[in-house]
Prior knowledge:
By secondary structure, this protein is α/β, with parallel strands linked by helices. The protein has one domain: Metallo-dependent phosphatases (Purple Acid Phosphatase, chain A, domain 2, 4-Layer Sandwich), CATH 3.60.21. It has helices at about 40-55, 70-75, 75-80, 120-125, 160-165, and strands at about 5-10, 30, 60, 85, 90-95, 100-105, 105, 115, 135-140, 170-175, 180-185, 190-195, 205-210, 210-215. Strands 4-3-2-1-13-14 form a six-stranded mixed sheet, with no helix packed on it. It has a six-stranded mixed sheet with strand order 5-6-9-10-12-11, with no helix packed on it. A hairpin with a 2-residue loop joins strand 13 and strand 14 (about 210-215). The longest helix has 12 residues, at about 40-55. It is globular and about 40 Å long. It binds zinc ion (ZN). Zinc ion binds near residues 14, 16, 35, 65 and 178.
Amino acid sequence: MTNARPLRLILMSDTHGREGAHPVPDGDILLHAGDLTDVGRAREIAAVNAGLGALPHRHKLVIAGNHDFLFENDPPAARALMTGVTYLEDTAADAAGLKVWGSPWQPWFFDWAFNLKRGAALAEKWARVPDDVDVLVTHGPPYGIGDRCHDGRRVGCRALLDRVRALKPRLHVFGHIHEDRGWWQIGETLFVNAAQNYDTHPAMVVEWSDTGPRIVEGEAGGPIDPS
Ligand SMILES: [Zn+2]
C-alpha cells in the first residue's frame, strides 16, 4: 500500500465498559480486541456502541471477548446493537486498504464466552484466517507472547501461534491477559497486547507507512517464551 502519510491505528482492548475513561487518540482506524463489557448484557453493549460510535475515526472495528456473552448467546440481538461500529466474528473487513480479520475465540477457561477446547477446535477457527490478512485481531494471545499471568503461567493458544507464524500478518492485536500488556516486534509481525485493564491504561497507537506498522505510543512488552 502507498499512502501520502502514515495511517494511524488506535489499539484498544479490555475496556470492560470504560472505553471513555481515557481520551481516545485521533486516528484513521480504531481496533478493539474484545471485552467491550463486564458481563455482556444488552444495556452494556448499547452503551459501548454509543461511546465508540461517537468517535470520529473513519474505521472502527471491534470483536467480542470472553466477557461479551450476548454475542455468543444471542448473536442477532447483540449484532443489532452495533450500529456505530463494525463487528467482526471470524470475518474480514477492509480498512483504508488493510485487510483486517477479527475473531473472539480463546482456550477454555471456566465456560466464559467464546471458549473452546485447546487443539483442533481452535485450530479450525484459525484456519479460516485468510492468507492475505494484514491485521489480525483476536481476543486471546498466541502462546508465549503477551500471555503471561501474574503467577508466571502462559495461557496463550499454541494453535494460534502456529497460524500466525505461517501467515506472518504485519500486525496482531489482542488482549485478554490484562497483566502482560505491551508490544513485541518479532520477525515481520508486530504483536500488541493492548489490554487497558478497565481504565488503567490508555489506547496504544501504531503508525503504518509504506514500510509497515510501528508503535508510536505504548510500552514495550516483557519476556516472551520462544518455544
Ligand atoms: Zn478483559
